[in-house]
Automatic annotation (TrEMBL):
Domain Heterokaryon incompatibility, residue spans: 22-123
Domain (DUF8212): residue spans on this chain: 235-256
Domain of life according to the entry: Eukaryota
Record's protein name: HET-domain-containing protein
Pfam families registered for this protein in UniProt: DUF8212, HET
Length: 256
């Protein structure tokens, strides 16, 4: 996997996710303003200059979210971080497929998962009936389901990178919003003990930009490993169901 150095904003390759300690980011892509890609970071790495200068964290050639995440994580004592926008080489189809299949484990093995909620303010109680936390777009996206469940340590952050709470401290609220039981969220109940239909129901209200990702974002929740192929549309979900049933002949999948 590729890790991002929070001090110099450059990339480090590690062959095993357990070789380095790292924090990981869960967020919603902001397509209107764009995101730093793997190629963006690599191109800047080869431009030279002092990569150990703190000025790189204020360098506007990098997008604000990348700079803010690196600065926040570095202040929390993290030398390395992982974020999907720039730590996956999407131009390499094999690397992309491998990353998608490994992503659940990468989130599970991280020291902490920071959930950045760009549409949430810290100036309110998240438990309020009409809070921006409850209405955050983060709760509607396909990929963020596994990013919520896989890590044991999750910290929710506002649009200004202020701590809103943790998965543990807000577990009752998160359970209410997502329908994922507190036992699963806090790793006290094994995922495999939950029926296939119920796990599928957690994902039902969520959407992905690419239709194939509605299937690929669930691989980790069912312990499935299969090639991530794009351009096949709904066929990806059919393949997922076939793989789930082959691994675990839970007939509740037919109820779904």
């Amino acid at each position: 996997m590729w890790l991002l150095d929070t001090w110099a904003i450059d990339l480090l390759w590690v062959s095993d996710a357990t070789e380095e300690r790292y924090a990981i980011l869960s967020h919603v892509w902001e397509n209107d303003i764009g995101e730093d890609t793997f190629q963006d970071i690599r191109n800047e790495m080869f431009r030279g200059g002092d990569r150990n200068s703190s000025s790189y964290r204020n360098d506007r050639r990098f997008r604000k979210k990348t700079r803010d995440f690196c600065a926040f994580a570095h202040a929390q004592g993290h030398r390395y971080v992982w974020m999907d926008t720039c730590c996956i080489n999407r131009s390499n189809t094999a690397e992309l497929s491998d990353a998608i299949n490994a992503m659940f484990e990468w989130y599970a093995q991280a020291d902490v998962c920071y959930v950045y909620m760009w549409d949430v303010t810290s100036m309110e109680d998240p438990r309020m009936g009409v809070s921006t936390f409850r209405r955050s777009r983060w709760f509607t996206r396909s990929w963020t389901l596994q990013e919520l469940i896989a890590p044991s340590n999750v910290v929710f952050l506002s649009k200004r990178w202020e701590v809103l709470g943790t998965k543990e401290s807000l577990v009752d609220l998160v359970e209410e919003i997502t329908a994922v039981p507190a036992g699963v969220l806090l790793h006290r109940t094994a995922l495999d003990s939950i029926s296939v239909a119920r796990r599928m129901s957690w994902a039902a209200p969520r959407k992905a930009t690419l239709v194939e990702d509605e299937a690929y974002s669930l691989l980790g929740l069912f312990g499935i490993n299969m090639p991530a192929i794009y351009g096949v549309g709904r066929q990806a979900f059919i393949r997922l169901q076939q793989q789930i049933f082959a691994r675990n002949p839970d007939h509740s999948i037919f109820a779904w």
